[in-house]
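Consider the tokenized backbone below.
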């Protein structure tokens, strides 16, 4: 399908579209109407898709976690009074002492810096996951756009089929009136007209459903736009599988693991730093009730890491890091297999569509023309004419379905590679 220039550029535009700030600040009142292009559909979905708008809050939450990670521990104020509710000498007011002190926890082992590093890595991971969600939205918009274009082609085919059956029925009615054709053939022709009209109504209903599904991607419920502009039957050259495999490294699903690995490494370093105890220092003023004298008091405290050296948390963080590495390898193998399967299906669909366009459809068109001439000369029956018409209609429908499948496969591969898989276009024509 040739989506003007939008199809070949839709994933190239990810460099700017996958920036959440670019998507949210560009949230214009995009409401496509009339004839729709894929570029307009993508713009509307990026700026107004409800799922993307909801998921954008995750990045704001990650920013808040970074801000919290930068915060230092609060100082602590304390007041200590000795000699309250004592006995004997200790009960004398003159023996009382009051100490007002201020203490501060000093984080050792660069805990604050490593805590911020974990929050930053978590923010990067959230950004990559947001990119993956945006890429999924772009792919889904493209799939639904393809459905709309294919539905439009089916409506066009159904209307042309209705016109063909009506024209044939009129010609048969004239032949029946001239007593050149049995009335039974007119009945069969009228049945074909009825069936064609029913197929036309069904195709129109499917188009409305596909359109409604498409506009829902940007939060609309009205059946707009009226039509989608694209050339379903135009194919473009494919890159090699090896080139696509190389591009797959930029898939957000794999980039997620790179960000996750950095997060796990930061968590390991944080857990190791937390094994070192913090130092609490304090300074205060002590007043002696008996003399009224005032003196300074200082305090230092630190936990003794005899039993808890955070060894469990360190071990867990190291295990999580190895788990991420194993998951990345498994995902890479799965995506490579998925890409290979999709590419093989794409080649098969391309070959089938080429066969339909270059061989089957011209042959069916020629057969119909020959049968039409033979029927007019009395060499063929209406049954044979109807079969020839149905064969052409069936092959055209198969071409539409195959082309739609081809572009859906293209969309899936582009989602995996995060880049277009086509280069310079060619424009074969449907007979």
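A designed sequence for it:
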């Amino acid at each position: 399908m040739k989506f003007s220039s939008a199809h070949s550029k839709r994933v190239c535009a990810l460099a700017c579209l996958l920036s959440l700030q670019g998507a949210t600040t560009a949230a214009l009142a995009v409401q496509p109407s009339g004839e729709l292009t894929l570029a307009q559909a993508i713009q509307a979905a990026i700026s107004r898709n409800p799922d993307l708008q909801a998921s954008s809050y995750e990045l704001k939450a990650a920013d808040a976690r970074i801000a919290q990670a930068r915060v230092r521990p609060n100082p602590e104020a304390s007041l200590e009074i000795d000699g309250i509710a004592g006995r004997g000498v200790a009960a004398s007011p003159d023996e009382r002492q009051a100490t007002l002190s201020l203490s501060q926890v000093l984080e050792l082992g660069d805990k604050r810096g490593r805590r911020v590093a974990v929050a930053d890595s978590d923010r990067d991971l959230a950004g990559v996951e947001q990119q993956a969600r945006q890429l999924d939205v772009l792919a889904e918009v493209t799939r639904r756009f393809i459905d709309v274009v294919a539905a439009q082609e089916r409506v066009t085919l159904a209307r042309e089929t209705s016109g063909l059956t009506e024209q044939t029925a009129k010609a048969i009615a004239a032949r029946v009136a001239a007593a050149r054709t049995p009335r039974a053939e007119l009945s069969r022709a009228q049945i074909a007209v009825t069936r064609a009209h029913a197929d036309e109504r069904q195709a129109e209903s499917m188009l409305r459903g596909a359109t409604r599904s498409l506009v829902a991607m940007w939060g609309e419920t009205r059946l707009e736009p009226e039509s989608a502009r694209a050339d379903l039957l135009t194919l473009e050259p494919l890159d090699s599988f090896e080139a696509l495999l190389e591009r797959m490294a930029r898939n957000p699903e794999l980039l997620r693991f790179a960000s996750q690995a950095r997060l796990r490494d930061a968590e390991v370093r944080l857990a190791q730093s937390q094994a070192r105890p913090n130092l609490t220092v304090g300074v205060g003023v002590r007043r002696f009730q008996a003399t009224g004298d005032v003196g300074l008091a200082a305090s230092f405290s630190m936990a003794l890491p005899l039993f808890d050296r955070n060894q469990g948390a360190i071990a867990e963080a190291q295990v999580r890091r190895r788990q991420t590495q194993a998951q990345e390898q498994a995902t890479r193998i799965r995506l490579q297999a998925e890409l290979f399967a999709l590419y093989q299906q794409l080649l098969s669909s391309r070959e089938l569509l080429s066969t339909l366009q270059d061989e089957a459809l011209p042959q069916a068109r020629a057969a119909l023309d020959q049968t039409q001439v033979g029927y007019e000369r009395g060499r063929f029956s209406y049954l044979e004419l109807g079969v020839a018409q149905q064969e052409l209609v069936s092959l055209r429908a198969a071409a539409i379905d195959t082309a739609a499948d081809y572009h859906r496969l293209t969309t899936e591969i582009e989602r995996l590679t995060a880049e277009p898989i086509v280069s310079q276009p060619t424009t074969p024509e449907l007979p």
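The CA atoms of residues 375 and 381 lie 6 Å apart.
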